[in-house]
Amino acid sequence: MRAISQDEFGGPEVLREIDIPRPEPLPTEVLVRVVAAGINPVDAKTRAGGGVASILGEPPFILGWDVSGVVEEVGHGVHTLKPGDEVYGMPWFPRQAGGFAEYVTAPSRHFALKPTTVDHDAAAAVPLAALTAWQILHDAVHITAGQRVLIHAAAGGVGHFAVQFAKAAGAHVTGTASAAKHDWLRKIGADEVIDYRSTRFEDVTSDQDIVVDLIGGDNAVRSIQVTKPGGTVVAVPGGVSPELATAAEQRGVTAIPFLVEPDGRALTEIAALIDAGKVHVEVEQVFPLSEIKAAHERQESSRAQGKLVVHIAP
Ligand SMILES: NC(=O)c1ccc[n+]([C@@H]2O[C@H](COP(=O)([O-])OP(=O)(O)OC[C@H]3O[C@@H](n4cnc5c(N)ncnc54)[C@H](OP(=O)(O)O)[C@@H]3O)[C@@H](O)[C@H]2O)c1
């Protein structure tokens, strides 16, 4: 099968196509023929030696966690999926999944049936970003109706799902994004939008119950002052720095780190929301596998509206 590998850490130029044997599913695993694979910031970071490189170890390795495809074979013990099922998932994270390849094997419960109303390219855009938004809001901070939620980088992969899940939970949603993306963000559920390029968010918003910070560094520290005492700041990239911990303690705010994990059950709930028309998947661009380097370059720009996807099946 074709796959994208790398022999060293570095820029997109280290990525190269290789030909390797198709993997075999072990008991409790499924073999999935990958139709499309989503790309995320962690792919570009890990390629360069950051991200989860410390978990993957030295190259060679195959990046890619978001896959949508068709079950080809099931191992002994798999009861919930069968060959021919169309599935999507974020298998193995943060271990290697090898999503930028024609086939992957993984525990069956890392997958769910894909939403039926979108194609594989759009389904591949969902798992990592949507699970991040879902697990933050529902599992980490237990969002409830009427809460005020501020989402930084609301127009990105994670952000646009977080806006929609928070809205669906009955929250009042404020998002930060550049001005060109404001109309679209209002359409998908933001009650208020802040142009972070022209306005300091702390000058125009306050009293948030939850802040989902997808920027990191100083942005997370500044977010403490717009959070109510008793509220929570989720520091997604970079986690909780000593500076953030101190600022949070002084204001009586909780600052927490976050890491997404595989979750087939949540993906079933998310697929239902997509199929009911309650959640929209925004795909900015689909790249052929031969343009994987361009996909990494666009990902690294941190400017994408919604998600970027690589189409793998011929
Ligand atoms: N810990 C975890 O489990 C986990 C999981 C998922 C993601 N992450 C991390 O979370 C971050 C976001 O991921 P993502 O997939 O959503 O990234 P992304 O899709 O690449 O985000 C792109 C968006 O960021 C916006 N943006 C850039 N700088 C901004 C700023 N200063 N203020 C507001 N918006 C800004 C851009 O909007 P404009 O063009 O309008 O600026 C663009 O729409 C990344 O660092 C990623 O590694 C962590």
TrEMBL record:
SMART domains: PKS_ER. Residues 10-310 form the Enoyl reductase (ER) domain. Keywords: Oxidoreductase. PROSITE patterns: QOR_ZETA_CRYSTAL (PS01162). Pfam families: ADH_N (PF08240), ADH_zinc_N_2 (PF13602). PANTHER family: ALCOHOL DEHYDROGENASE RELATED (PTHR11695), RETICULON-4-INTERACTING PROTEIN 1, MITOCHONDRIAL (PTHR11695:SF294). This is NADP-dependent oxidoreductase. It comes from Kibdelosporangium philippinense.
